[in-house]
């Protein structure tokens, strides 16, 4: 089973949801006309960027506007859409929430970022998620993660151990830590014997320069596609038939001993 994916790496307009909707629409038109992908992924907080201090005003109330917009795009282009993440307001809370749509425009899953990044003050403005990132899309077992999540291998392993074959990552990862971005994603692919498809943003905001370098990595840890720092539509083909053979060759999931992992007690 083979599937084509596209990452839309673009420069997000700081605090301007309407402008960002225009940019997403244009980029999707370009991606569909060039590649006709099965899956398309957007970056983290594509609707607002990291304009955290204004989220009370600019976050999407219950995600209603974003859901309608993204559903129509998925249906129009007949593409499975891992729609990065949006700032979603629910009552007095704002979450960093990934939305996933099938080819018919149906919303099939939401995942809110579990791990908040204190270095960028997320914990002051956002509420962490509580749900799994697992979902099934177009016959593929998938999992979604957001940026800082990739520093928590136990969280991503939990999803792979429960069947995920491709790990989708939406991010706004800064340029100074580009080496970490690449190294962590390659490690997550190798240890989970899964494809990693990671869509980062490009450009800058008033406080950060972002790395770009969206990546597609195979289950052996080979980088099969990588963007540069500028805006780019990155595409690759994933062959899910390879995963079973790789997991059989080095059977890490069979050899796990999870009954011990949480049972060790520190001894003097």
From TrEMBL:
InterPro entries (UniProt xref): C-N_Hydrolase, C-N_Hydrolase_sf
Gene3D superfamilies, sorted: Carbon-nitrogen hydrolase (3.60.110.10)
CN hydrolase domain residues: 3-240
Keywords (A to Z) from UniProt: Hydrolase
Keyword Endoplasmic reticulum applies: no
Gene Ontology terms, MF aspect: hydrolase activity
Family stated for the protein in its record: Belongs to the carbon-nitrogen hydrolase superfamily. NIT1/NIT2 family.
UniProt keyword Transmembrane helix, yes or no: no
Record's protein name: Carbon-nitrogen family hydrolase
């Amino acid at each position: 089973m083979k599937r084509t994916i596209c990452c839309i790496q673009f420069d997000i307009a700081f605090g301007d949801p309407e402008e960002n909707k225009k940019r997403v629409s244009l980029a999707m038109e370009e991606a569909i006309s060039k590649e006709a992908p099965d899956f398309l992924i957007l970056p983290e907080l594509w609707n607002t960027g990291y304009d955290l201090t204004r989220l009370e005003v600019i976050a999407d109330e219950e995600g209603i506007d974003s859901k309608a917009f993204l559903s129509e795009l998925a249906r129009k282009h007949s593409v499975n859409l891992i729609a990065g993440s949006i700032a979603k307001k629910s009552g007095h809370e704002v979450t960093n929430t990934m939305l996933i749509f099938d080819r018919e425009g149906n919303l099939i899953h939401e995942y809110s970022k579990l791990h908040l990044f204190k270095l960028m003050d997320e914990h002051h403005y956002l509420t962490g998620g509580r749900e799994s990132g697992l979902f099934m899309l177009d016959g593929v077992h998938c999992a979604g993660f957001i940026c800082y999540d990739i520093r928590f291998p136990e969280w991503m392993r939990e999803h792979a151990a429960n069947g995920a074959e491709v790990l989708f990552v939406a991010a706004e990862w800064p340029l100074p830590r580009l080496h970490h971005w690449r190294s962590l994603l390659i490690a997550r692919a190798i240890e989970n014997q899964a494809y990693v498809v990671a869509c980062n943003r490009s450009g800058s905001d008033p406080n950060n320069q972002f790395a770009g370098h969206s990546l597609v990595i195979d289950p052996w840890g080979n980088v099969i596609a990588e963007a540069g720092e500028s805006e780019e539509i990155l595409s690759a083909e994933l062959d899910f038939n390879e995963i079973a053979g790789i997991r059989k060759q080095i059977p890490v999931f069979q050899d796990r001993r999870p009954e011990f992992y949480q049972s060790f007690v520190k001894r003097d």
